[in-house]
Design brief:
Elements: H1 2-83, H2 87-169, H3 173-185, E1 191-195, E2 198-199, H4 209-216, E3 229-231, H5 234-239
Helix pairs in contact: 1-2
Bound molecules: zinc ion.
Length: 256
């Protein structure tokens, strides 16, 4: 019984370590997704900026076509000037020409302003492109690092799975069943030491004769409060004092 209990404690330790490794592994994907979010945000900002530049260029083209139309009108008006017969007609055509000139001037001012705006916005495009490149490089570095971590975790998990398999072959299947059932109901903690007549799983007191019985290893003893399997910790025998409650009931903080 003593050997079986010791193996069970080792099994529990392995199971806990494997759960912790799995938890670390499970954090990798969301972590990478979060890191990827920054790349996507940069891509979106760049796309938006490029669209803004495209729109400005379109607007400039539209104004330039308007200028072409006005210039045709101007030529036509100038042609009319040769055909006028009266002073009144002449003045009217001159006014028309003047109006067209003013429209062309105004359009040219708008084109110039648009060209300046394009230049300014293209500068922002260049800044955002550089930023995106940097963020992508950073992401690739993080991704490589995390892939390495994942591989390392897989290696560790495989080793522990092998150890677990070897242990299972030396364990009484009925005992393993009992352990599995309790562990499932008790947050993975099924085998606990008894220290100073206190169950280290639920921290409730147990009758003093139990520790005496426990040391004899004649039968499987469980806590009458929480049904966890009890064992006698060796260090307690040697030092005569309780060790730190490593397997405490409180939720584990290390998995975050
Ligand atoms: Zn208990």
């Amino acid at each position: 019984m003593e050997d079986q209990l010791k193996r069970l404690v080792t099994l529990q330790k392995l199971d806990r370590e494997m759960r912790e490794l799995e938890a670390l592994k499970a954090r990798i994907a969301p972590f990478l997704q979060e890191a990827r979010g920054e790349v996507i945000r940069c891509q979106e900002a760049l796309q938006k900026q490029e669209q803004a530049v495209t729109n400005l260029k379109k607007e400039r083209k539209r104004k330039e076509s308007q200028i072409e139309v006005e210039e045709l009108a101007l030529q036509k008006a100038k042609g009319k000037l040769l055909a006028v017969k009266t002073n009144r007609e002449y003045t009217a055509v001159l006014e028309e020409i003047d109006t067209i000139h003013r429209r062309i001037d105004s359009l040219e001012d708008e084109v110039l302003a648009l060209m300046e705006a394009v230049e300014k916005e293209e500068e922002v495009v260049r800044t955002l492109t550089a930023r995106l490149q940097q963020v992508e490089e950073e992401y690739r570095a993080v991704e490589r690092e995390k892939e390495g971590e994942r591989e390392e975790l897989d290696r560790l998990l495989a080793t522990k799975a092998q150890q677990r398999q070897a242990l299972m072959e030396e364990l009484d299947p009925t005992l393993v069943d009992q352990y599995t059932r309790i562990a499932h109901n008790r947050n993975g903690l099924a085998v606990v030491p008894l220290k100073d007549d206190i169950c280290q799983g639920c921290f409730l007191s147990l009758p003093p004769q139990l520790s005496h019985e426990l040391r004899k290893y004649e039968r499987l003893i469980t806590c009458s409060h929480c049904q966890r399997i009890l064992y006698w910790p060796e260090e307690q025998e040697a030092q005569g004092e309780p060790t730190t409650g490593e397997e405490a009931e409180s939720p584990r903080q290390s998995l975050h």
